Amino acid sequence: MKTRIFVTLKNGVLDPQGKAIHHAIEGLGFSGVHDVRAGRLIEIEHEPGLSKADLESMCTKLLANMVIENFEIEQA
Amino acid sequence: MMRAAVIQFPGSNCDRDMAVAIRDITGADTSLVWHRESVLPSGLDLIAIPGGFSYGDYLRSGAMAARSPVMQAVIAAAGRGVPVLGVCNGFQILTEAGLLPGALMRNAGIRFVCRTVGLTVENNQSMFTSGYSAGEKIHIPVAHHDGNFFADDATLDRLEGEGRVAFRYAEPVNGSARNIAGVLNDAGNVLGMMPHPERMIEAMQGGSDGRRLFEGLIREIA
């Protein structure tokens, strides 16, 4: 079984990487892009029995830094 | 004799400089401790978490190192009041381990910053900063990609109110909130700072402003 975990910066936390990507997109000639925020996708292959609570615990203990990031768990 | 340990992670690269600085300035019996150890040498007077790129900065700078076995022992020692100094990647590791508040994010200018910067000593009452005078301007090098200190406003206000901002950049360097370069924990025995005092301990290195951190520390510990 596969679970996808999306880690994103909290609202209000400045994202210099997103800003640089935004500039690069504009540099390529694309217009109409208002903002870019960069995050991280983590895919976990696991036993079907692994609980949502365990997945959440992995996120809060390691995969996300709760000072600056949020996470979303997407189970297939 | 004073006893010190410098923790080594895969990817640490300032471990030897830190050990030399501690040994030469304080005369401490200084050992290097590998991150797989779950027990620290007994009777430590100082633990240093050095700079570098532990675990290749995978996931987030300091994130993997903060969960390695030795850090449980470091957290326990910090709780007993043992002084812990984290420099650069060491600062990142201490925030990731929850020993210091906030987080160190990518520099606001995206670029790696490697130069000597001006700092203001904001608090000279801590065991790490007693070698300086309050408000003193000093010069110490930085070399980092993720030194942009972030914490929410309430946390920042609390840090300022409690005198836990040890050092501030004299001018913006990396986008750090309120130009914070180094912070203390609430008990005052854990300091994290992005600048490298161990790289400024003798004239040959361009100055010795980092030396007084270690000199002050040994007076406080002795």
Automatic annotation (TrEMBL), chain A:
Keywords: ATP-binding, Cytoplasm, Ligase, Nucleotide-binding, Purine biosynthesis. It is found in: Cytoplasm. Pfam families: PurS (PF02700). One of its GO terms (biological process) is 'de novo' IMP biosynthetic process. It is an enzyme of class 6 (ligase). Its EC number is 6.3.5.3. PANTHER family: PHOSPHORIBOSYLFORMYLGLYCINAMIDINE SYNTHASE SUBUNIT PURS. Part of the FGAM synthase complex composed of 1 PurL, 1 PurQ and 2 PurS subunits. Belongs to the PurS family. This is Phosphoribosylformylglycinamidine synthase subunit PurS. The gene is purS.
TrEMBL record, chain B:
The active site is at C88 (nucleophile), H196, E198. Pathway: Purine metabolism; IMP biosynthesis via de novo pathway; 5-amino-1-(5-phospho-D-ribosyl)imidazole from N(2)-formyl-N(1)-(5-phospho-D-ribosyl)glycinamide: step 1/2. Gene3D superfamilies: 3.40.50.880. InterPro entries: Class_I_gatase-like (IPR029062), PRibForGlyAmidine_synth_PurQ (IPR010075). One of its GO terms (biological process) is 'de novo' IMP biosynthetic process. The keyword Nucleotide-binding applies. Keywords: ATP-binding, Cytoplasm, Glutamine amidotransferase, Hydrolase, Ligase, Nucleotide-binding, Purine biosynthesis. SMART domains: GATase_5 (SM01211). One of its GO terms (molecular function) is glutaminase activity. GO terms for cellular component: cytoplasm. It is found in: Cytoplasm. HAMAP family: PurQ (MF_00421). Part of the phosphoribosylformylglycinamidine synthase complex involved in the purines biosynthetic pathway. Catalyzes the ATP-dependent conversion of formylglycinamide ribonucleotide (FGAR) and glutamine to yield formylglycinamidine ribonucleotide (FGAM) and glutamate. The FGAM synthase complex is composed of three subunits. PurQ produces an ammonia molecule by converting glutamine to glutamate. PurL transfers the ammonia molecule to FGAR to form FGAM in an ATP-dependent manner. Part of the FGAM synthase complex composed of 1 PurL, 1 PurQ and 2 PurS subunits. This is Phosphoribosylformylglycinamidine synthase subunit PurQ. The lineage of its organism: Bacteria, Pseudomonadati, Pseudomonadota, Alphaproteobacteria, Sphingomonadales. The gene is purQ.
